[in-house]
Every structure is written in structure tokens, then in C-alpha cells.
């Protein structure tokens, strides 16, 4: 069993062409013995965004804090604390922070996908 506050996990920071102001943490993953899923926590700084990308695996996302938008099928869909999103595999997507505070979301992916 593992019980830990996500902020106690060392973040991996992403700032490069196509991605801005993202910190990701593996809250529960293969190192913890999780055989089916990986739980990740992402923080997106004000005006930050993930890369627009596509991959085979699905995402289940819960937005915990802040507000932003998710790119789907050529349009931006607003999200806020309490919103959920299901992104099927092979669907282009991106997340961006449109609010004044950090956007925090939890993302579940299947085991075998890159954890970060």
C-alpha cells in the first residue's frame, strides 16, 4: 500500500517547443507495484499548455483545480475544477490553462504506456 501527498513526489518539468509550464508526477505507477494503471498528477502554470499529440492509449482525466480547455476535433472545450474528460486512444488532444491559477489534473493511463 502507498499513501502519500502528491506534492511530496519530485516533479518532472516540461518546457520546450510545443509545451510550456507543465510539471508531472507519477503518483502511482509500476514502481509501486501497480499492474493495470498509472496515475499521474499534472500542474499547468498560468498560460501553460501540453503538447498537441496523439497516441494509442486512452486517458481518464479529473480536473482538480483551476480552469482551462481541452482540444478535441478542432475545437477547444472549457474545463474547470470538478470536470472530467475521457480521451480515447488515437485522438489528437491538448490541454491548456486559461485561468489565473495553476490548473491541476489527475490523469490515468493503462500500464505499459510511458508513465511520463
Would you kindly provide a written description of the structure presented here, covering whatever features stand out?
- With 116 residues, the chain is mainly β.
- The chain has a single domain (9-110), classed as Jelly Rolls, CATH 2.60.120.
- The protein has strands at residues 12-16, 19-28, 37-49, 59-65, 67-72, 75-80, 84-87, 94-97, 103-110.
Helix content: under 10%
Helix tally?
A: 0
Report the end-to-end length measured between terminal Cα atoms.
Answer: 22 Å
Average residue-wise pLDDT: 97
Number of strands: 9
What is the level 1 CATH name?
Answer: Mainly Beta
Major sheet summary line: 6 strands, antiparallel
Number of domains: 1
What is the element layout, followed by pairings?
Elements: E1 12-16, E2 19-28, E3 37-49, E4 59-65, E5 67-72, E6 75-80, E7 84-87, E8 94-97, E9 103-110
Antiparallel strand pairs: 1-2, 2-3, 3-9, 4-7, 4-9, 5-6, 5-8
Offer a concise description of the structure.
The protein is mainly β and 116 residues long. The protein has strands at 12-16, 19-28, 37-49, 59-65, 67-72, 75-80, 84-87, 94-97, 103-110. It has no helices and 9 strands.
